Amino acid sequence: MSRMIFVNLPTNDLAAADAFYAALGFTKNEQFSDENASSWVIAENISAMILKREYFSTFLPGEDAPHVPGASGNREVLNALSCDTAEEVDAFVERAVTGGGSVYRPADEPFPGMRQAAVADPDGHVWEVAWMDPSAMPG
After folding, report:
1. Of the candidates 110, 112, 120, the residue with the CA atom closest to the CA atom of residue 77
2. Exposure pattern of 35-74 as b/e (b: 16+ CB <10 Å)?
């Protein structure tokens, strides 16, 4: 079996999170979804597990608690996804906003052959998207 990655994220509102991830075009895996969690397939071996905050807490030992995005102005993680085209970056941002998210960092082109942006889901978890043309990269 190939190695897989599951990004586990706490949510305050599972229905709002579901609307956001559905708007991005991800596929909900009903086998791993219930009233406490939703599993969203991003790619063949990558899934986002969106867990109600209370349920997320059951996986944490001792006094640990879920990080509250934006509460301290610090980020615990920045999830990054590749895109096949520069246009896909813009389309991803549009779908994110339509789905209840917000623009965290507007799209830009830091150098020729790269387009990037970042969005936040309804709970403030940041997803960066980027397209790169290796033939245009310096060096």
Report:
1. 120
2. eebbbbebeeeebbbbbbbebbeeeeeeeeebbebeeeee
> What does the mean pLDDT of the chain come to?
91
Give the orientation angle of helix 86-98 with respect to helix 14-23, to 10 degrees.
Answer: 150
The whole model's pTM is what?
0.86
Rounded Cα distance between 66 and 64, Å, is 7
Superfamily of domain 5-62+76-136: 2,3-Dihydroxybiphenyl 1,2-Dioxygenase, domain 1 (3.10.180.10)
> Coil, strand or helix: which one is 95?
helix
Q: Taking residues 112-123, report their average pLDDT.
A: 94
Distances, alpha carbon 50 to alpha carbons 36, 44, 116, 123, 125, in Å: 9, 17, 24, 10, 11
